[in-house]
Amino acid sequence: MTSPKRTTIYDVAREAGVAASTVSRTLRNPRRVNAATREHVLAVAERLGYRPSPLATALQSGRTATVAMLVPDITNPHFFGTIRGAERRASAAGITFILSDTEESADNELTKIEHLARSVDGFILAASRMSDERILELAEEHNLALVNREVRGLPSAVVDTSVGSRQIVEHLASLGHRSLVYLSGPHQSWLAGERWDSLRDGAERHGIRAVRLGPFPPRLVGGGAAADAVLVTGATAVVAHNDLLAIGVLRRLAERGVDVPRRISVVGYDDIFGADFCVPSLTTLAGPQDQAGRAAVELLLENRSRSTARTPDRRVMLPSHLVIRESTGQAPE
To answer: Is the pLDDT of residue 186 over 70?
Structure first.
């Protein structure tokens, strides 16, 4: 016995008197179809008994049951917690999770979004390297949530490094340090600017001379040139953009016979896995990166039911705290 023929998208288009592409758009991205056409197409599809796949069913409301997270460097342990938190929250919601490495490139971010746009329900941009203007343009067409990046008018989950940076300065001031150097990350990094502003303000309040050097690659390989540059300044404390850079600095200082922390103290950001294994163990600013990942997925889920692409400005601010280890000590006489 022959099974009945399954109704296709072309059957719906023919009956509704519209193009197949209009039916597809109605199911895939209903926000781009006017309300009257959308209701007509959906009504015809229901009357004909059109039964799309589970994924297509999700698409009828503009949902693909898939989200993508874009990170600048998938090998950086800093992102491990963020990725794990986002993936677990997506899994709990029955959503497929896609991860993509943009290699510290704003152009790569844009390309990835263009390639994935039809396959995902939303994007999580972690530490995005794109400009505010470009991100706002993308938000007109796509469901976006940011992690450790803020753009006015868009939802974001951010670990508060402003308060944390002041904790770093207060810690160094209590040890008698009167000069510090901030080793900046990539020039496109929003966090690099935020951390420097907070460090500089805190230094001014405590009468500490602060200098910014860089940008440096936020990886171990950047530590060599960064450490050499610090020694020229004569500063007694150095704050690196992230832990990988800080550990690279520790290695280079050890090669040059510079005692840490007796001659110079070193501080990082992120408290990555291994920060307590290096020699000396690294003083660093820690934060709940896994919670940031979970919060970003929740922001996307909230936005899926809205009729417009733009979500009212919502910022989830998560606390940070200083983890004091062996790489910081009393300032030299």
So the answer is: yes
* pTM, 2 dp: 0.79
The predicted-structure confidence for 88-124, as pLDDT tens digits, reads as follows 999 888 889 999 999 999 999 999 999 998 889 899 9
Domains contained in the chain, number: 3
Strand order in the sheet with 96-101: 96-101, 66-71, 122-126, 144-147, 156-159, 315-318
User: 308 pLDDT exceeds 60?
Assistant: no
275 and 180 within one domain: yes
Report the chain's mean pLDDT, rounded to a whole number.
90
Question: Which structural domain range is residue 216 located in?
Answer: 161-288
Kindly tell me the burial class for residue 305, based on how many C-beta atoms sit within 10 Å of its own C-beta (0-12, 13-18, 19 or more).
Answer: exposed
Of residues 229 and 302, more confidently modeled: 229
HSE-up of 325 (CA within 13 Å, CB side)? 23
Whether residues 95 and 52 share a domain: the answer is no
Residue pLDDT, tens place only, 1-24? 444 567 788 888 899 999 878 887
Note whether 139 and 215 are same-domain residues.
no
